[in-house]
Fold these 3 entries.
Entry 1:
Amino acid sequence: MLDVRRLGLLCDLTRLGTIAAVARANAYTPSAVSQQLSALEREAGVPLLERTGRGVALTTAGRVLAEHAESVLAALERTTAALAAVSTGLSGPLRIGAFPTAVRTLLPTALVALGEQHPGLELMVTELDPVDVPAALRERRLDVGLLNDYDVVPVVPDPSLDAVPLLDETVYLAVPATAPITGDPLRAVRDADWIMAGPGTLCHTATTLVCRAAGFAPRARHHADEFTTVLALVAADQGVSLVPQLAAERPPPGVRLIPLPTRRRTRVAYRGGAATHPVTAACVTALRDSVDAFLRR
């Protein structure tokens, strides 16, 4: 019989590439991970790993087993969801991970609704960058998480997770209210100073690509990852920036927002097979209702 936990470690190795990375993701030592994978090889009866210099790679059998292991893990999630569906009332922890603008604008309404409709739930929110959400879901530190990307920077889906669309946002060019903008707004600010997210972030990459498509490279004067800070700097005439709709709900005085064709897309993600779990379904419904209320505002 193949051990489910060890199958999870094999899937992690497929995704992360090294024993050390798998150990960090699971709070194990590299030696413990190696021992668990060796035990899985004995259970499978075939070699699953082969040495490649200082690292390891999956054998053909290892790749086949990892592919089927994803299906096994998803089936276990569906089984858990089916058992939960026959219980009376929703109870237990619901751990939600979301990026800062969603925590401020969407989560409060959703949490109130969940608390009123399902008082047995233990609601817990963690503010996370979207890039950290998949690992937190896989490691069961979260039950539901919000992911986003931009149409100019699509993110490759994680095969171990399922997701449904939640919000398709307008992206705005934020400029000082006194800035003379005529014609194409991006070309009008090609020589302006820019307020950009930190290099390597999704927002930084999206800004760079949007500007490149307009025929220039943005000149970063300030770096800020929190949109409240970004808008405060724009209001202080420190530069221009790109801001998604969730962050632009209440801009400070002195900021003009110009809609662009670029879109930011947010999805609700959870472990593969968990879509029918009553707690997951209740959370998705509450978030969608919150988005509807936000858009009506």
Entry 2:
Amino acid sequence: MSEERRTRTAEAFFGRRHGKTIRPMQAVVLADVLPRLKVDLSAASPGDLRALFPVPVDRIVLEIGFGGGEHLHHAAGAAPATGFIGVEPFVNGMASLLRMLEREARPNIRLYDDDAAALLDWLPDGSLDRIDLFYPDPWPKKKHWKRRFVNRANLDRFARVLKPGGLFRFASDIDHYVNWTLLEVARQGGFSWRAEMPDDWRAPYEGWPGTRYEAKALREGRRPAYLTFVRT
């Protein structure tokens, strides 16, 4: 195994790959639909990511860990001139989004079902307008904090692939992970936090449809935070 591969494995997108048993229709879409939408990292990265999409797009957004796909599907429908790349290694989440796409196609979506760090390393410099990371696994035990996706290595990746002025958006209902993210981003030094008053991080993003994870957090009495950072 190469040194590059060992490093990437150590920084992988940790989490479960399987949950509930895959139902027959889910298996069908994973076998038939996903290959048509999947970003192929074995191919050379295009100089212009707009070439990944069969429709004209003028902006590119990456959503890492899209869960059940509610936000990604909604966002792609609301902004058809934006190309969205969604990453989700959890098989059940990917199958959920693919079923939505069967019912309501989104030609401006492309998908990747493995390690987000590998995709980030494949992307060209300054190729993204925004990165969204919503409700990532908080890994609450201190011994597991090193597995949190927000870390110096991944923030360096974000800084490389985002355009100057591009956005990194982070939402979580776990106070400690919110504080962790603020500190890690400040240490990285390539971003500024776009907040001047409490509503700038307490109010959901414009056009926010909500997610199943957010709904659970609200039911359990946890108040989410919505952070926005600008690539300087």
Entry 3:
Amino acid sequence: MAPSPKSPPLRDRAPESPAGGSAATAALHGTVHLTVNGEARSLTVDNRTTLLDALREHLHLCGTKKGCDHGQCGACTALVDGRRINTCLSLAVMHEGSEVTTIEGLGTPEAMHPMQEAFVRHDGFQCGYCTPGQICSAVGALRELRDGVPSHASADLQAQPLLSPDEMRERMSGNICRCGAYSNIQQAIAEAAEATR
């Protein structure tokens, strides 16, 4: 029979930190400086905190949704330094000094972003849970097109990608709409692309 585990001797335990927790626990926390929706923010977070949880739990910006928490649905998409990312797959401390734009930073009900206006006009949502991620992803996808970034649907990797339905379907494939509003989303993106061209 194996002996039962015992508590480590006092000499083997982690030293206490001045704040009352162990030094090991204190080492797990860090301060990250971000610009979120145009405002400078400093957060002290556990180094294992995702950017998604930092936005939702620490900054109370709940427009960025937690869907699958595995990077498969795109509901948590936000723009970081102009590029769209799944915030559930990225640690907050990885983005020291970054500029983060969430759905709240794209526009307001009084002054909506053209993509937000197009989603409303084309009824590009039903339950609305995926909509913030869809909109942020669409804004990022159009920026990629303007910058000439190819996708798997691009026929010529050296040529400027075209704003085609196939191209946009490929670029938006990481954003799932469980309600199936894809055709309306596609129309909204096409309209916003024309408006921002």
